[in-house]
């Protein structure tokens, strides 16, 4: 049996706007971030996609995004949280090392990259293996989405080299028998008309 996973990044936040490092720390959605979520909602509506099951990171920015996208009941799960950046949390982004980060943040109380990837991949796999619905929405974070893509890139032909923007949607097919994910599509919305909001 096949299921469809829509893995989505949250909308723009205050810290995104201020160029601050945001992992386990949190900040609210901006007005633009709220509008981004409503555009994602419209996308699902026009595609006829209705969610009976939804899941979110425990971070407020992810929960608030999900609540704007769907009225479906949802479950908050800690394993869907963003990378823990340790003492770099809420500091300015210019302090970030060059990509790939690797295990840089582990020396400052954060997570090693592969530990983070394994956490997210295992959490999403557990959700899909237990889900009863055919289509599942998960709202998480930019690096979390990227690491999940990396965990399954050997099974996927679709690729996104640029950063995962706010409210980007990754459409995966989950094969319940093989317990494998394949990335089918990357949905990036045009938010350029929201820039002045």
Automatic annotation (TrEMBL):
Q: Which GO terms describe its molecular function?
A: phosphatase activity
Q: What is this protein called?
A: Phosphoglycerate mutase
Source organism's superkingdom?
A: Bacteria
* One Pfam assignment: His_Phos_1
UniProt xrefs under InterPro entries: His_Pase_superF_clade-1 (IPR013078), His_PPase_superfam (IPR029033), PG/BPGM_mutase_AS (IPR001345), PGM_Phosphatase (IPR050275)
By its UniProt entry, which Gene3D superfamilies does this protein fall under?
A: Phosphoglycerate mutase-like
Q: Where does substrate bind?
A: 9-16, 61
SMART domains hit by this protein? PGAM
């Amino acid at each position: 049996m096949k299921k469809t996973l829509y893995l989505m990044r949250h909308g723009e936040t205050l810290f995104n706007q201020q160029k601050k490092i945001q992992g386990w720390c949190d900040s609210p959605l901006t007005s633009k971030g709220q509008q981004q979520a409503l555009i994602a909602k419209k996308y699902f509506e026009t595609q006829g996609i209705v969610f009976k099951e939804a899941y979110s990171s425990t971070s407020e920015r992810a929960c608030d995004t999900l609540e704007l996208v769907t009225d479906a009941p949802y479950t908050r799960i800690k394993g869907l949280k963003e990378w823990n950046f340790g003492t770099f949390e809420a500091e300015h982004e210019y302090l970030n090392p060059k990509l790939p980060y690797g295990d840089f943040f582990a020396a400052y109380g954060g997570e090693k990259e592969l530990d983070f990837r394994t956490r997210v991949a295992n959490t999403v796999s557990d959700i899909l293996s237990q889900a009863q619905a055919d289509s599942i929405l998960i709202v998480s974070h930019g690096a979390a989405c990227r690491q999940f893509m990396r965990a399954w890139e050997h099974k996927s032909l679709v690729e996104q080299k640029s950063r995962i923007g706010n409210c980007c949607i990754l459409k995966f097919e989950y094969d319940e028998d093989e317990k494998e994910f394949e990335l089918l599509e990357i949905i990036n919305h045009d938010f350029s008309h929201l820039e002045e909001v």
